[in-house]
């Protein structure tokens, strides 16, 4: 699974506003709706339902919200870098400024979990997080994520 295949540059917001957790998730839902041609309200409801089960803030300023969405045919992503870090009930109690949201077809199981594991491993890389925080354009962020996600040569 290649991160570049599930995350298009137009689904990246390099300088998004912060606010409350709900406001951030609403902004993620709006980007997903525009890029995936689904209703923003449906995406937000699915994200909020998932968050009610436990925060997707994984630490180090990163959150990986995710949801299954009826009507999708493949796993897709949205990436946002927040200008103002937002409290997200993260594991380390640190506010979040890097959001990598994943959306999967309602019936998806394996592909959804593989994408989630891949993004989680990727976002644990401290050097990459720092580069993402410094990148200025959607294209630069996409290039960093696609490059970092390539399997290493043996």
From TrEMBL:
Name this protein carries in UniProt: PTS IIA-like nitrogen-regulatory protein PtsN
Gene Ontology BP annotations: phosphoenolpyruvate-dependent sugar phosphotransferase system
NCBIfam families xrefs: nitro_reg_IIA
Any Pfam family the entry gives: PTS_EIIA_2
Gene Ontology MF terms: protein kinase activator activity; protein-N(PI)-phosphohistidine-sugar phosphotransferase activity
Source organism (scientific name): Caulobacter mirabilis
PROSITE patterns linked: PTS_EIIA_TYPE_2, PTS_EIIA_TYPE_2_HIS
Cross-referenced InterPro entries: PTrfase/Anion_transptr, PTS_EIIA_type-2_dom, PTS_Nitro_regul, PTS_SugarTrans_NitroReg
Record-annotated PTS EIIA type-2 domain positions: 5-148
